């Protein structure tokens, strides 16, 4: 898909990957609605984008785990810029550590990391089918292809996000709907350490597992990888190329991979 002239929605754009992706989109000629749960953060992002390219962006504070919030974003995009061409389901939250995570916390992360994608697709896909084009960009994680030491809810929901992206690509890929699925490892954002209790040894090991597995990238580096995938119509976006090597080892011998993961977990301080 050509980005120049496209209308995009980017969720979770109050900072990190979402804000960086918004920047790259407007720099390449797109007009963007940026969304976040926090009004001050998303307004700051929108102002920064408009400073780069006047009139290129508008921000809205909504909860994108709810259908009404997603509908408000789509309606705003249509009023200000036109029909949505690209929807980047980037909003995500971390999960609790271990089996102690309660049901309410499980439900919240499922709503944000998985069902927000489903609800967005329900709203957008029928219109995209009529128009014959549209692109859905899923921010998952390397945890969706491998796993996340420490957090079962993060691992499960990121696996589900990858699976839903695969399903969209299979079901609608021959009808003009493109899907890209982003699966990075460590990225220098608040999510990496901001929500972790580093005095908790389990939480500390979970963060260490990410930072030790590969280089920690800057959000703009990740956004560049996403932009390349949008332009080339590539499904799997791997800013950390070593993830593909890890995934191949996993799929080649599952039991050996599980054993190696247990040894790796035991080695973490």
From TrEMBL:
Q: Which Pfam families match?
A: adh_short
Gene3D superfamilies in the cross-refs: NAD(P)-binding Rossmann-like Domain
Q: Which residues form a coiled coil?
A: none
Report which superkingdom the organism of origin falls in. Answer: Bacteria
Family annotation (CDD domains): SDR_c
| Alphabetized UniProt keyword annotations | Oxidoreductase
The family classification in the record reads: Belongs to the short-chain dehydrogenases/reductases (SDR) family.
Q: What is this protein called?
A: SDR family oxidoreductase
**What organism is listed for this UniProt entry?**
Aeromicrobium halocynthiae
